Amino acid sequence: MVATTNNTVPVTVLTGYLGAGKTTLLNRILTHEHGKKVAVIVNEFGEVGIDNQLVIDADEEIFEMNNGCICCTVRGDLMRIIGNLMKRRHQFDHLVIETTGLADPAPVIQTFFVDEDMKDKIALDAVVTVVDAKHIQQHWDADEAQEQIAFADVILLNKTDLVTPEELAELESKIKGMNGMAKIYRTQNSELSMDALLGVQAFNLERALEIDPEFLSEDAHEHDETVKSFAIVDSGEVDGQKLNNWLSQLLQTKGVDIFRMKGILNIAGEDERFVFQGVHMLLDGKADRPWKEEETRKNELVFIGRNLDEAQLKEDFRQCLV
Amino acid sequence: MFGVGERSKILYQQEWQGNLSEYVTQVAWSSNGLLAASSAAGEVVLWQNDSLINLLPADLASIDCLAFSNDGKFLAAGGQDGKVRVWSILDYPLSQGGLGEIYALDNAPSWIDKLAWSPSGNQLAFSLGRYVQIWDADTQTVVTTLPFSNSSVLDLAWQPNGENIAIAGDGGVKVWSTKDWDDDSYLIDMPSASIVTAWSTDSKYIASGNLDNTVTVLEYGSHLPWIMQGFPGKISNLTWSQSLANHAPLLAASSMEGIAVWKKAAKDEDGWDANVLTLHNDKVQALEFHPNSLLLASAADDGWLGLWTNAKQVGQILEGAPHGFSSLAWSKDGQLLAAGGRDGELIIWSESKRDKGFG
Question: If you measure CA to CA, which chain B residue comes closest to A77?
């Protein structure tokens, strides 16, 4: 799902609470002169009929799949709709999937990891979350609101005109604590450059980790949120076998609570960087480009999840070093 | 990568080739030997006397499903504009005025993904989101709306004896009796979603191909299904062979590029034995048993259409869609085979007179 050849269609997953500004953003994407034909799959009642664009209604449904080893949810409707759409390959260049305000975005993302028909044809581009700067205060307790932020690669902190600068700064700091990987943009009326939205390639393993250095160095923020993100940076060499054992055990026991993880690893005895990413229990990884001469070989891992024991995970990782 | 002799037999030879403008979504034969085909550009065509009659032009929304009524008097098509269109075929061959008026049921913005005519009358079942509607062509009314409820409908199949209709989706297959639509449905429970479902030709067994890479077979009326495992991915196609004397019909299933043929052991408790057919190196898009023999046809994205003698060995490989086959259908007498391609190819082969003796 990560290879971006000419034959794969990038897909953007758009999340956010009702009224946050998703439909406005969708309209911007559809009417913007970016020269791309965008197909949109919506699953609430926001009809967005624009010339030459496709808007497809999807039912809201989640398919539970239980095959014994991993438990993952797949959206059967996505398979059905995208399967039908892909028959006309040249009809669109980019796919946008708008999830309902109350949906957990994980099943949508996981579909692109696990479905064998889609892996080769669709490349996840980014999860974009629109946050209503004013009304998010009422939704903090909702799991969905936290998950939408936690899963995001791009966050639009929208309706900034409705809150004070102090409230906004506090909100942004809180969101950074929950998700240190996402790029946060302060917006009004969901106004944002298309470059920041489409073609982000946040799921492309080759561009795996462009972590904000500020996030890597920072240990200062202490938030009391149950959802948080943190990074592990270590310059040692990793024992591949130990790492494997640790990761598989971690995903089995903590997969439900790990929303996303990404990393670049320095495996002992290997000249290439090892890159990986995961969504809940699903992990995708491969050997990447060779380390450069002038580069300092090191490990960088990022976790976003709920109730994660940062100290324990850091210690467990250290145990994997040679 | 497969064991075919140096000179494979010629079982079928090309009879005709034409083109639609886009991916051929479905091909279907009527009981009178009329062929219909639909495309992702929205075309619907009929093949007659080696030429195509256009029923719907290109540049409409994709037409995704197509079927003739059992007596060949009606053709129905459904697709992404939400319309179910029904033509009446008054006269065959289609002389002047052979095509009757068309009925259109408008269900936009829902897509119509699946439709099928009753084997015993002019009732048409079509999927509509989480429902299946039954429409009667004689009275031109919707007879009933069956609530699948769990998810959108992924497949539907009438029992060949006309007694029941099966609807597949998340949680398994629900079976409604056609005798009393208001009766509760019978649920064949699955731990995942049922993607495809098919009744055996003798109406005795019902098979379901599932999202969790399994195939389930139930002798209808019993409560203990057999579960077949070992597939590399979700199940895309299911087809039953003709009825066999003293034996349950064979069941073939495809998953990704693989095909497996299942044969029931003599004793129920011994289950079903699998034979894996290896040929394709890309996804099998269509799989169908010959109506009167054990010849099995498989059409795949790799551009090969495999004909499997006795559902065992490759008897012949047909080509003609370099970027992949998308659909196939046997004529009712099995003498003709039609297939559609990703780039709009529409090809008809006929049974070779020179080289008989398969099946």
Answer: B152
Same-domain check for residues A186 and A273: no
A17 with A145, same domain: the answer is yes
Contact check, Cβ <8 Å, A76/B169:
yes
Residue B66 identity: L
Subunit contact B80:A76, Cβ cutoff 8 A = no
Residue numbers in B near A56 (CB within 8 A): 111
Cβ atoms A221, A212 nearer than 8 A? no
What is the rounded CA–CA span in Å between residue A26 and residue A40? 8
Assigned token pair, B265:
């052991």
Among residues B70, B69, B34, which one has the least CA distance to residue B55? B34
> pLDDT by residue (tens digit) across B190-219?
888 899 999 999 999 999 999 889 999 999
CB–CB contact B152 A117 (8 Å): no
A66 min Cα distance to partner chain B (Å)? 6
Q: Are residues A107 and A243 in the same domain?
A: no
Q: What is the mean pLDDT of residues A57-69?
A: 34
Yes or no, beta carbons of B326 and A80 under 8 Å apart? no
Residue type, position B316, single letter: Q
* Residue A4 within any structural domain of the chain: no
Structure tokens at A150: 């936690």
Residue A150 pLDDT? 93
Spell out the residues 6+ positions from residue A122 whose beta carbon is closer than 8 angstroms to its own.
A1, A8, A9, A10, A11, A82, A95, A112
Check whether residue A252 and residue A185 sit in a common domain. Answer: no
**What average pLDDT does the segment A169-177 reach?**
93
B263 touches chain A (CB under 8 A): no
Provide the number of structural domains found in chain A. Answer: 2
Q: Which domain holds residue A30?
A: 9-203
Task: State pLDDT tens for residues B24-69.
Answer: 999 999 998 999 999 999 999 999 888 999 999 998 888 999 999 9
pLDDT tens for residues B76-88? 999 988 899 999 9
Q: Which residue of B has its CA nearest to A67?
A: B212
How many angstroms away from the CA of B255 is the closest CA of chain A? 10
Q: Are residues A264 and A283 in the same domain?
A: yes
Instruction: Give the chain A residue whose CA is nearest to the CA of B64.
Output: A84
Q: pLDDT at residue A57 above 50?
A: no
Which of the 8 DSSP states describes residue B214?
-
Token duo for residue A274: 């090892």
Point out the residues of chain B with pLDDT beneath 70: 1-8, 92-93, 95-96, 354-359
Do B130 and A59 count as a contact with CB atoms less than 8 A apart? yes
- Looking at residue A26, its pLDDT comes to 83
> What whole-number distance in Å separates Cα of residue A310 and Cα of residue B155?
47
For B64, the closest of A56, A65, A84 (CB atoms) is A84
Q: Which residue of A has its CA nearest to B110?
A: A57
- Same domain flag for A243 and A195: no
- A90 and A227 in a single domain? The answer is no
A15 belongs to a structural domain: yes
Question: Is A145 contained in some domain?
Answer: yes
Residue A50, pLDDT above cutoff 50: no
Q: Clarify whether residues A60 and A102 are in a common domain.
A: yes
- Beta carbons of A63 and B170 less than 8 Å apart: yes
For residue A116, give the nearest of B109, B130, B233 by CB distance: B233
Of the three residues A142, A171, A203, the one that is the final residue of a domain is: A203
User: Whose CA is closest to A105, among A127, A86, A89?
Assistant: A127
Q: Which residue has the higher pLDDT, A279 or A207?
A: A279
Q: What percent of chain A has pLDDT over 70?
A: 80
Range 179-238 of B in CB contact (< 8 A) with A: 191-193, 195, 211-213, 232-234
